[in-house]
# Entry
Amino acid sequence: MSDAPPKGLTSWLTTTDHKRIGLLYFWTAFGFFLIGGLEALVIRAQLAQPNGHVVSAETFNQLFTMHGTTMVFLALMPLSAAFFNYIIPLQIGARDVAFPRLNAFSYWVFLLGGLLLNASWLVGPLFHAGALNVAPDGGWFGYANLTERQFSPGPNIDFWQLGLQILGISSLAAGFNFIVTILNMRAPGMTMMRLPVFVWMTLVTQFLIITAFPVITVALVFLMFDRLFGAHFYLTSAGATPLLWQHLFWLFGHPEVYILILPAMGVVSEVLPTFARKPLFGYTVVVYSGILIGLMGWGVWSHHMFSVGLGPIADSVFASTTMLIAIPTGVKIFNWIGTLWGGSIRGTTALKFAVGFIAMFIIGGLSGVSHASPPADLQQTDTYYVVAHIHYVLFGGTVLGLFAGIYYWWPKMTGRLLSESLGRWHFWLQFIGMNLAFFPMHLIGLLGMPRRVYTYSPELGVGSLNLVSTVGAFLIGVSILVFLLNVWRSGRRGQAAPNDPWGGATLEWSISSPPPVYNFSVIPTVTSRLPRWKTEHHEPMRDPPAIPPAPIHVPGGSWWPLVAACGFPVMALSVLAHTLWLVFVGAAILIFGIYRWAYEPFEV
Amino acid sequence: MAHAATTHHTSLGLDNRKVAFWAFIGSECLLFTALISTYLVYKGRSVVGPYPHEILNIPFTSVSTFDLLMSSLMMVLALAAVQRGDMKWGKIWLFSTALLGLVFLGGQVIEFTEFVHKGLTLSTNLFGCTFFVLTGTHGAHVAVGVLWLLTLWMRALQGKLGPANAMTVEITGLYWHFVDVVWIVIFTVVYLIQ
Amino acid sequence: MGRLKGKSDLGTLDIVTRCRLLLTTAVVALAGCAGPFPQSTLRPRSDFGRAIDHLFTDIFWWAVVVFVLVETLLLVALIRFRHREGRPAPKPTHGHTALEIGWTLAPAVILVLVAVPTVRTIFATAGDAPPDALKIDVIGHQWWWEYKYPALGVVTANEMHVPVGRPVQVSITSADVIHSFWAPALGGKRDAIPGHETRIAFRADSVGEYPGQCAEFCGKSHANMGLRVIVDADSAFETWAKAEQGGSATPAPGSPADRGKAVYSRSACLACHTIQGVSPGVIGPNLTHVGSRTSIAGGMFPNDSAHLARWIADATALKPGSLMPRMQPPLSDGDIALIVAYLQSLK
# Structure
């Protein structure tokens, strides 16, 4: 059996290979990242001056809604998923994930959900509105009762709640898949406490996903029933409260932010030891901190609701739990610094991004502590101060962390090296750009500019600061262009990558770049946390042989995950087009796909 | 179902599908917790009737509940039969489980129709929307379970189900018992404690 | 493969950090002066505002200390331990229990030092104002603010007058979607939630005009939902309250204002606006004393003839989504001018 991957469009549409699915996630997510970034640039162009006229209020409200929704659900989560897919089986010594077709299904559902959401930009005319008129416009957090039909009569919110429900299914399916993969498919000798930290953080993230997403699904279903069938889940006239939405949303929403940051923290925990040539400092503590953060993340949700008037006791409780969660977070930071300390640090681009993560996350974390204090937060919440906070943790944190992963694992995934000198330009432009873009926002907020405003008065006096922020945003855009140039050059004439360009300690570096389709010619037996490094107790492992001693069967592809996935947009269409029977068509497609999938013959 | 996973060595010593299913059940617990919590939060806050005490029929629903409990017993018997290779009884018990599930669903249909006639719909009041979405979601889960059971029964009729793939029946059983337990909670919270 | 090139890369980092600190100091210093930044949270003008500012200042300086400490540690690590040829391989340390305990306890201690004043301030500012406080009901609408003074029998919009030095209790709710009432100089914000009542208790300590705006996304013109709190000296407040309690001013017969009243009384304006003794509508702001307000349209425009005329002619063009429709058939320019004269007479 050949170990070269199959070619052609069909092979991609039917792939169940985690490496291919990882690449699909990567390119799709990066595409959405660019769209979300463009939305941000238009937002910043509009806000560069007071009383801006770049876009109308309606368009602006759609822009910030789509920017947030796209970045959270279509860019950052799937970019992390790209690494879960590609790297996790390699790091645990497995040939694939537990359920390869379910894996493909997750990808296709994600793609279709993302396309549905973004189609809203274009299909205005189908709803007797202009183009750029029916994209979701209720904010990424969609507070009721603004999202009820009475106040949002168009299809905008329907695109949003349907799109998110579909994306939820994708994330849930992947969550189950990775939990089983990590718990049940580790190579012999790879105990839980020998897992790479990236794998651990992914595991915690998946548990957060499978517990948090059902909650937002319920919240969205309630909204859907209110809008479609006249239910009253969030309508005060019937005795309900819009606060139910807030509680349900943030019960999901807070674990969601840990879903967004933990994988990047895992990446940093891989990159730092490799380039400091030292094991991760305090492995056990870092792992337990991650678990604690995941658990404690369930106890802080109402810190998003300090201005709601929950009462002094509730405010005090949530203030305390929120401050408590800063402790394991801080502990991780110290352990990363401890990893660098005493090391021999090579400043590759991956390392720069990982260090950038730490430096920026410190700032984001500190502004977070100020938010944790309800009285102080009453001035900060819903202003540009909190926009600064979220972008320091999500851009300075997650995005920088994921770029560290990109530069680190690019050779493994593509077989080519990225240029380090272009990488240096990318890093510094992005680092400077993001600080220019987001640091002034702390002050803009403290000077009284609320968030989610399409314009602001010159009297506020924040025009110059906003201009600086806009310049920074465009600088980020330039940095991304540099990255794209790097990618293009690497693809055309990048240096071929050896198995192990960096001297890594973990299993993925023991095989070729990219790996053969079966990953490991022989599944390794693991005897330490750093299998490829010489430690006080172990010699480095012998890499698996290039040629497998016996033929390895690799499952072929399948059409059924894609077919089943197509059921969802059809069902969503029934709501958007007010055509009930489409729900049954969509359900039939889904069930048909699942049946064919379940009874697909096992090929020899 | 064809799978390589069944025969492979696994780190926990458990079948992949079983581990996946337990994770799924954990997730579903959160789903139903959110639905039940909403019901509880809005309990007693309907501005107009019909109200629960006017409309819920405890004797009728108790019979439904008993029916579902018995279906779980059928499920246990079905799994035991398949595991020991007794496919004659395996088919009988699988079909019986599905049948009792269908009876439960029939009971739900009768109950919901009755409520609608008495003026309780999704859009009437808080009781209406919380009740119908909660029990409707549960009912949808039962319906999926019935479809699943009938599929297994048909596979058995085709001679394609046996002790070698008893794992699929075990997982079906897990699902069915979970759905039953959720109903016990709903029955208690919605019907018994008013 | 790139390397950290000695000091130059990190020197750049230093410059960025230094410039950032300089800029912040300069702007913050500017913010401390009176004049610019009228919506600043950093110049509190009430007890509520000061309590928050005090707490925030504490937290801010702790944050600065931690920032400097930790970033310095990081920088030192990067410089001191950068790769150099010929250097021996690093010692493979795996951890250090005492350090772990230390750097778990130290942040915990700092957090306690933040948490204690936090909880104190929560309880100090959460209580209701004393029973003799001036009570004001605030109702958020898309996209304007309604104020009712139950004890005084006053109903007005967008501009809230309060007496300096006296306790005020603001009770906030919404007539439609969630808004948030925020006058930064007077303290933090509270959401206006339909079906709920939230409260702010404060005592303003300086006479002046303090702008604010809605701080919870509430639809198309969320950005245009401004408000103004005008803190008056006691006597000025009494004067204002007396004027507000009176009925609507009767214009001199035959004057443009009088003819404007006639036009007003036969147009659709009646359906949405209250002018005491003239029209009963409650959908839009109460206009009984609109002439004495400094701004219109939710703080969007100054209250002058030109802006009033344009607003009446086509509100939606100026304020996206505004519920104030163009008249059908449209009012003539002459009629609009007359209405404007009438409204400006309603002091």
Q: What stands out?
A: The CA atoms of residues 95 and 519 of chain A lie 6 Å apart. Chain A has a mean pLDDT of 96. The radius of gyration of chain A is 24 Å.
